[in-house]
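Box S2. Input/output pair 1.
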Amino acid sequence: MRNKTEIDIVFIVLSILFVSAAMNHENTLVIEKRSRVQIDSTQFDFVFTREDWRPEQTALIICDMWDKHWCPTASERVAELAPFMNQVVKIARKKGIFIIHAPSDVTDFYAGHPARERAIHAPKSDHLPSDIQNWCYWLNEDEQKVYPIDQSDGGCECEDCSSYIAWSRQVEAIEIEDSDAISSSGEEIWNLMDTRGIHNVMIVGVHTNMCVLGRPFGLRNMARYGKNVVLIRDLTDTMYNPKSWPYVDHFTGTELIVEHIEKYVCPTISSTTLTGEAPFRFKDDNPH
């Protein structure tokens, strides 16, 4: 029979292993990803997969949640979405997810902010994609043939609107902490992630069919360069005019873009993954 000292040592080792396993489980993000897989020439089926993500290997990018848009209705939806998004961001930050604020065109507003300085001075990655600074709208011509909405008019449903740079900063309702990063540069954001060993990326913001998909730090570039990227599907909005094809309401237009992303770009998740609460819904988005 083992003596008491040996038994005590075994007990201590097992206790440490148990506590370590419990801590690892507690610090793991359980991600429920949704995508769509083609089963025949016209039909796609939902596919749900579950993954465990480490928070320290995960970033949340906030795309172009500006203080003002040239389209008044787009500005109104951002203002409605921002407070809820801020709560999700706070939860993500508390869980240890790295927050990157990416308000394109206006990062100079944050000159000298610790979060901006962090992005500027991030060590350069040895694995920087050659064209990470470029927009990426579509991967190939075949996908353009099945693109689900017509956004050629700019997507504004107001009367007499014209495009101009109306934004000056990120919407104030989304708080920026000194521990975050501020950048809209594909190179800077890649450097930030590479420095921290970040492989998992969540993207939120606007507009789903334009900047969220196409920016240098957007879904397409993250997906094609190997990041494990997802769109948080209830924390986004499209630029779509219901007077354009396929002549559906605005929020159905967003759903069509989300569906397209799940088929051809990357999976999506709900904010429920982080909050445990019901996902966000715009006040005018009535269930079908």
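Box S3. Input/output pair 2.
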Amino acid sequence: MAENPPSAAKPLGVDARLRGNGVGLFVKRWATNPRRIGAILPSAKPLARIMARASMEARSGRGPVVELGTGTGTITRALLEIGLEEGELVLIERDRELCRWLEHRFPRAEVIEGEAARIRAILDERAAGTPSVVVSSLPLRNMTEAERDTIIRATLDVLPHAGALVQFTYARRLAIACARLGAVCRRVGFAALNVPPASVWRIERVLADEPELATAGRP
């Protein structure tokens, strides 16, 4: 996957919205559309680290790591801190201002303004290849069932045979019907210090030789 040259980044200080740690920008975007952003604050570092570890453990193959609903990149930074190369990242975010922030903070990553449901078309358009894992901070509980189903199916469809989607939720249970979608869902982490506390889930397709997992993994 081609890397964006560092020179593509906007110089620090050109836009005040690109300064600081991004919390102010995140809160501003949340105030504009709370349902779309989903959380009033970015993920805390403990949650980001759990998400990063779970994502690297779930990685299948050497394809890019695709992040959905990247926000200001808290989880992105945690992925880089545990050894992922910035050029291996494809960041899909639908908010234009947050995309500008991400382009500035992660100039070697592929930052794409787009909808998660179009993940296959987006990856094909950019010739990004097959993801090794998909990391999601999408506010699934703020979506309709049809929207959730479309995103989960589209995501699992672009992953390799043993690939996984790593998703966090503030609720005790995931907002998706895993069995109905032909997926197995396992809780793989819990961030008690996040505000609010959050659970981390690994979502995978049920393989033909393990049909019993379709119901065993339903949250």
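Caption for Box S3: The beta strands are 65-68, 89-93, 110-113, 133-136, 164-169, 183-191, 198-205. The radius of gyration is 17 Å.
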